[in-house]
Amino acid sequence: MQKIRILHLMSSFGGGISTFIHNLAKEASNQEMVFDVATYSQVPDYFKQTIEETGGQIYFLNNPKKTSWQSFKNSFAKAFQENAYQVVYSHIAGYRSVIYYYLAHQFQKDTPFDFYIHGHYRYDKNPALKNKLMQVFDAQVNRRLSRLPIGCSQLSIEELFALKVGESSVVIPNSIEPNDFFIDFEKKRTSRKYWLSKFTKKSKQSLIIGQVGRLTAIKNHPLTLEVIAYSKKQHHPLRLVIAGEGEDRDFLEKEVEKKEIDAQVFFAGRISPVANLLAGIDLLIMPSFSEGFGTVAIEAQAVGIPVLASDQISQEVDLGLGLIQFLSLNCEPKEWYQRLIEFYHQSSTKIPTDEERFRSIQAKSLTNEAAAKLYRQVLDHQVSHFRIDSR
Predict the structure, then answer these.
(1) Domain spans of the chain?
(2) What is the pTM of this model?
(3) How many CB atoms lie within 10 A of CB 136?
(4) Whole-number pLDDT of residue 135
């Protein structure tokens, strides 16, 4: 197998994109792949170290809005001055990817390379006319510039590439390292005790639920807060750990205060690794309006805890273990609360073994090893169509 060098274009660190790159990078060397990353933001040491272990490095881009066009161009050119690439892989989609496409071809004229655009998200359900027109334009850009339609889920690809019926596409799943989520009973007990200690009023019988993701409108945290407020009225108050950061934090903190559920909600900020949270909670809630894939649902099932998700999340995340249920966003907070309680008691009676969970993860190519192998086959033009089976 010949070694290939890939330049990943990532606007900023945090969320599914950086996790996708990081997890693939863990297995990149086994597939003879070198990863470089060009990004506008600083990255944590663990991410930088994983990239360097592939033989690659981080290239920091200057933001043309903050510096100048020439400064940005020079910072982007540096990667091409030091390396020749077989693949330039953009995690920046739509019209924003155009400049990277043309500059990459300008900087590397003599050595041909493939350019990919990876779909990581889905469009808004009811966009304004201006945004709808932009989505049509972006989809045409993605189709024209990317060697093939590719993304983290079938729904994401269908929307971002305006996929036609029968057209080939490749889902490269947001993978995980399963062993990171197989946690023994003692560690789970210690973790639960830690998270329970974050609440001023609690008991050992208190159910702790978690919501993980950027604090932004699409994650629909207000519905979760409504569920928590309803639980208080039922005299069976739930405890909620909110993991993540984002522009909606101030708004959400005010909502917590207004609903008088301060004693039931804890803002934990960004948690890494997320297994530190999942090991200590009783259930994960995902009422998102949309998700590109929803990797944290896979991670929660890997730990062995149930997931209550909105029906807007791809069925591809169902590992077939009886650990995830989907509920309509049209349902009232009362219905979410009742389903949550029922599902928790139902699923806690029989938690699948580590071996059963591993087999399910492996069967869907959701391990880092399987995803990296598939990724290399795609880059070698050996695979042009792959889907994750939905259950």
Answers:
(1) 4-175+365-379, 178-360
(2) 0.84
(3) 10
(4) 81
Give the whole-angstrom CA distance, residue 305 versus residue 289: 22
Do the domains 4-175+365-379 and 178-360 sit in the same CATH topology, yes or no? yes
Give the per-residue pLDDT at 310: 96
- Check whether domain 178-360 has CATH 3.30.420.40, yes or no: no
Look at the block and give the residue holding tokens 């009742």. 338
Q: Measured between alpha carbons, how far is 271 from 354 in angstroms, rounded to an integer?
A: 23
In the chain, which residues have pLDDT < 70?
124-127, 165, 202-204, 389-391
Spatial separation of the C-alpha atoms in residues 122 and 118, rounded to whole Å: 12
Q: Which two tokens stand for residue 348?
A: 């806690």
DSSP β-bridge partners for residue 114: 87
SS3 for the chain, per residue?
CCCEEEEEEECCCCCHHHHHHHHHHHHHHHHCEEEEEEECCCCCHHHHHHHHHCCCCEEECCCCCCCCHHHHHHHHHHHHHHCCCCEEEECCCHHHHHHHHHHHHHHCCCCCCEEEEEECCCCCCCCCHHHHHHHHHHHHHHHHHCCCCEECCHHHHHHHCCCCCCCCCEECCCCECHHHHCCCHHHHHHHHHHHHCCCCCCCCCCCEEEEECCCCHHHCHHHHHHHHHHHHHCCCCCEEEEECCCCCHHHHHHHHHHCCCHHHEEEEECCCCCHHHHCCCCEEEECCCCCCCCHHHHHHHHHCCCEEEECCCCHHHCCCCCCEEEECCCCCHHHHHHHHHHHHHHHCCCCCCHHHHHHHHHHCCCEHHHHHHHHHHHHCCCCCCECCCCC
- Residue 59 pairs with which residues in a beta bridge? 38
CA 91 to chain CA centroid, Å, is: 12
Closest among 353, 292, 293, 365 to 322, alpha carbons compared: 353
Question: Could you tell me whether strands 265-269 and 324-327 are parallel, antiparallel, or unpaired per DSSP bridges?
Answer: unpaired
Listed residue (213, 261, 231) closest to 335, CA to CA = 231
Residue whose tokens read 């509920």: 327
HSE (side-chain half, CA atoms, 13 Å) at 279: 21
The pLDDT value given to residue 273: 87
CATH assignment, 4-175+365-379: 3.40.50.2000
The full length of the chain comes to 391
Q: Are 41 and 12 in contact (CB under 8 A)?
A: yes
Q: Cα(first)–Cα(last) distance of the chain, in Å? A: 35
| Structure token digits, residue 261 | 């559920």
